[in-house]
Every structure is written in structure tokens, then in C-alpha cells.
Amino acid sequence: MYKKYTRKQEFIIITFILLLALVSTYFIYNKFSEERKIDYNSDSLEIVFSDSTGDKINIKKVTPLNDSVGMSTKAYNFSIRNNLTETKSIKIILEDDQKTIKKDNCEDKLMPKDNLKAIIKYKDEESDIKRLSELEEGVLLEAELKPVSENNFTIRIWVDKDTLLTPGSDFHYHGKIKVIEEDTSIVINN
After folding, report:
1. d(CA 34, CA 51)
2. Burial zone of 16 (CB within 10 Å; 0-12 exposed, 13-18 middle, 19+ buried)
3. pLDDT, position 32
4. I need a surface site. Which of 46, 135, 138, 189 has the fewest CB within 10 A?
5. For the chain, percent helix, then strand, then coil, each to nearest 5?
6. Which of 23-27, 35-39, 132-136 has the lowest mean pLDDT?
7. What is the predicted pLDDT for the residue at 190?
8. CB-side exposure of 75: number of CA atoms within 13 Å?
């Protein structure tokens, strides 16, 4: 009824199964790791973006939303770790992604910033909803990071329901999340 295997055959079968499991685990880990992590750092901070787009924010067409729906749109999640034993002040800035705009040659199709709203969540508290045109120098949040701590952030951005742009039109937005330390050092890509 049952086939009897020799010790050598059992060893080969078990080795094959373990090898297959290790190789599969390696490929699965690499796939998710590549999609999830785009690391940035400075002397004191490490930033990990949880999305495959990294620090990029894109709205591909005009879809006007009221604020309650806008606050449930795609989340751009990232964490910032303060590696120092002292508190660090940071600014989180939303700015135009000039590289993508130049590459796509789409200056004439960009949404005006007074049509876009954004909110950031930090320490389980959400900021006030702000129009991008109201942000001074693009600053969405100023915060202090405690020593040797990690903090999670979530940014959501959407088109205001009162926009005069035609819904469904190909006006779009290319943005970028930038983190600046108190000494005006820009946290950069590894």
C-alpha cells in the first residue's frame, strides 16, 4: 500500500522540499521588498516609503471629491526614524515633481494648486485640510521627532469638489514628498 523509501531517498526528498521553500521565500521577500521600500537618509534620519512610488504623488485625472471622501483616498505612507539621542525638528513639504513634469512635457496640463487639497496624519492626529496653494513654501507639517524613535505619516491628496476643471479631463498633478531637517538639510535618496 505505502511505498517504502530508503534513507537516501528520504534525504533527497526532504532536501528538495527545503530548497524549494528557501528559494520561494527568497523570491517572495525580494518582490515585496522592492515594491515597498525606497529608503532615504541623512546623518540623523531614515525614511522608508511604504509604497512602490516612493516619494512621488500622482493624480492622473480630474475627479472632484468632497472632503470626507477625499480623506479616504489613496494613502501615501512613510515612516521617519530619528537615530539621534536628541529631538529633531523636521518639515514635510509637498512640491512639484519637476523631473516627471519635464520628462512628460506636461506643464500645460497641470492642475492649479488651488484645486488640490491635502491632509497629513501623524501620531494618530490629522492636520487641518489645506489647499496646496495655501501652503507656505509647500510645508504641510512641521514636527518634532523624539530621540531614537520612529514615527509614521500618512498623506492624502485629492481634487476639491468645487473645482472648475472638467471632471474626467486629463489635467493631473505630479508631486513629491520632501523632508527637511531643522538645519535645512534635505533628506536624500540612498
Report:
1. 10
2. exposed
3. 61
4. 189
5. 30, 40, 35
6. 35-39
7. 44
8. 13
